[in-house]
Amino acid sequence: MTISAAQIKELREATGAGVLDCRKALEGAGGDMEKATAVLREKGLAIAAKRADRATLSGVIDIYSHGDGRVGVMVELNCETDFVARTKEFRTFAHELSLQVAANSPSYVRPEDVPAEVLDAERHKARELALAEGKPEKVMDRIIEGRLEKFYDERCLVRQAYIRDDAKKVGDLLQETMASTGENIVIRRFARWAVGEEIG
Length: 200
Description:
Elements: H1 5-15, H2 19-28, H3 33-50, E1 58-66, E2 71-79, H4 82-85, H5 88-104, H6 116-132, H7 140-155, E3 161-162, E4 165-169, H8 170-181, E5 186-194
Antiparallel strand pairs: 1-2, 2-5, 3-4
Helix pairs in contact: 1-2, 1-3, 2-3, 3-8, 5-8, 6-7
């Protein structure tokens, strides 16, 4: 099967992969764009997973102001090299994270960042609620874990539904960006301020 330059270009734009990788993926998929895209994404994720322990000392800080200055957000996104940090794709992802933080007010980047005392309080709250609803003790642990998962989905940035496509989590977007850049990328931290809110 002959693969056209237009097909390679389309796949490159969709995945950010190199010309040779795109050609091989398209040949392997018999010209099927969706299959070729899936192959390249898997390959990119595997490469990114291997690089997960690499230092991420480059990056950007994205600053976003929303609602005529009523909400402000600052996000630090890190990667391995200055080359990737300067790419449009990386900077766009940083900005998308800022929009996500402005819209959904997460409290933590990932579940591992939630302090033990907060988790204990959430477990206690979930237990009290389940008892008040008359739930049996034998299913209590499952109910508590289910409510903790919901807490993570609401309060942890990487677990939140992406504001532009709720079929994806922010963590999926992070993995896709890692796959297309081939570098380890870390959402280091964020801050969100709203006019008139209590300072904790």
